Amino acid sequence: MNAISEKFELKITTNKQPQTKNNFCMYLDKQWYHLKARDSVLASLSLEKSVGEKLDVSILQNFLLNPVLGIDDPRTNNRIDFIGGIRGYKRA
Fold it and tell me: Which residues pair with 12 in a beta bridge?
């Protein structure tokens, strides 16, 4: 959690759906967390980054999944699971 806190503001929540851009919800050890990308993360994206690198999915991969959790490919790594868009967050 300390490593996550370096890049994201982290707090316990009951909300399962992020409300705004650069915000994420994470379920870990039977607890929901709200993560908000820190200003330092967002500032690092403002210079010479492609549009794709500024997307929430890229922020999540480049600042949390890969460097902190060691998940290089969320589609094939067995340490992560997701609920597809058609089923929605209410299924979580």
Answer: 33
